[in-house]
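FW: tagging you since you asked about this chain on Friday. Here's the raw sequence from the shared folder, copied in full. Didn't touch anything.
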Amino acid sequence: MGGATGNSYCDVTTQPFWDACREHRLVLQYSPSRDRYQFYPRPFLAGDGATDLEWREASGYGVIHALAIVRLPLIHGWPPPYVVALVRLREGPVMMSNIIAPDGSLPVVRVGSSVRVVWRERTDGMAPLPVFTPI
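HL: got it, structure written out here
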């Protein structure tokens, strides 16, 4: 099993992300020399290979860039229908995630809707997942 978080997909590069998720904090890698954030975690900056990456806390706010409503049972623990979206974070990177409504219903959102991060707890000992809810 990988990493201290118990995630099999956790390694030395992604460990800080999952550790922050356990604390309900969304963090992104940032390159001071290029003044640019990135998501998903990598050992270098995508595009030019800069290695001066540090972790910075993100605002947790973004805008839906694209979305799809999933109506088939594809993932255990996620009964359909549910929304999968590409969220452009305020810091610039795009993150794929789910959009959830506070009351558990199917959220009413569209491309351009503003969202903020919330956390989906898991019962399997894995770190909570960052998901988004409409503002």
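FW: The longest strand covers residues 61-70.
HL: agreed, and The chain is about 5% helix and 35% strand.
FW: great, closing this out.
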